Input
Amino acid sequence: MRATGNRARAAASFLAFLLTSCSATSAAQQSGPPPSTRTLGPGASASPYPAAAWPEYGGNAARTGVAAGVPAAGRLRIAWRARLDGAVYGQPLLIGGLAVVATEGDSLYALDRASGKVVWRRHVGTPVPRSALPCGDINPLGITGTPAYDRANGLVYAVGETSGYHHVLFGVSVTSGAVRVQRDIPAPDGQPRYDQQRPALAIAGGRAYVAFGGLAGDCGPYRGSVAGVPLTGSGPIISYVVPTAREGAVWGTAGPVTGPAGTLYVSVGNGAGTSNKFDGSDSVTALSPALRQTGIFAPVTWLSDSRHDLDLGSTQPVLFGDGSMLALGKSGTAYLLNSARLGGVGGQLAQARVCPAYGAAAVQGTTAYEPCEQGGMAAVSIAGGRIRVLWRGPAGAFGSPTVGGGVVWVTDWNSGTLYELGQATGAVRYSVGLGGPLPHFSSLSLEGGDAYAGTSAGVVAVAGA
Output
């Protein structure tokens, strides 16, 4: 009964949060003025800067991955492709008439959404080549995490890794690409050479929240962390470091999930695995806006999970409208939680086998759409407090799903194929080739009748969404 009461209170707070977020949500190459911006969403006249249909990963601070108002999906075709100076691992941001993306070449681009032409480009530094890194699988390593847009000041924020193993927060003007904010982020764990900034950025309460994990291969003495940097670029940087001896990466591509009262939820990877004393690894961790730990969940198998690389860190915690939360990672076991009271070690409300999952989930109603690495993505219901798999998508399609237009969009990033799946059954309605393999954990941004995806060479736009 106590859990039910907590869920009701969490639901009321979360609905209020959603209503608020929906209504308030060094050389440059200029190629002409930005296209005329469109008025999008409620409260559009409150700011001189363009409104955004997709201002951050998943379309909103809760990372739901759902696009509202998208027309019924139909047959797919490639609208345009844009070749840029590097791979695009993050989701494109859809701001007014622009698609804003960041590349591993340490550049930010604004593309005309109608044509794919470059409106502005801002190169912010020299990326780090793979040969200069102790391990890893991205070459070169520049901007990997999805940027975030703050309409209040008209800035797009991104973190670039630059030569010398610096992680630098840049805030650039959405209308011109001019750099307005630049702030080096000292590594919270003191190990910048071994840290990678892969998760999407989150913006809340006047700060950009930036999460760090390790490089592919988990080399070196890094520890996972989250830093909070003032949006102005000045003032103290706050941080949280996972209290394990090493590793404990915060690396899920969706980045921190923002819930009621500004609570940030992150999934944490495997820790050192050397002690029976719980060390904060293999967990869902709740952090206050000041980055103080306010709650934590870990399975009773956390130590074994850490020792065998079977942790929860590979996807973000999925936050439902009633305050429930679903945690799923590499082990394949899903855990249903109460986000207001995570419950500590073994504090789940229910658990069930689903699949090993990597990337980011989408969520609508009582269904989460999970990026299953084996057997294709899964639609997972938590209705009635039970975890049930409703359907599975095509076997190779384990990109990070997005929902809109009555369908679920998911990529097979190995083949470079985009699938449109019926939301009720998972049946393939249409598919289209995107021109080659995509970055790992590939995902889409949606608005109007179009979908946008980062590729290994730039961006592709698909019509028919």
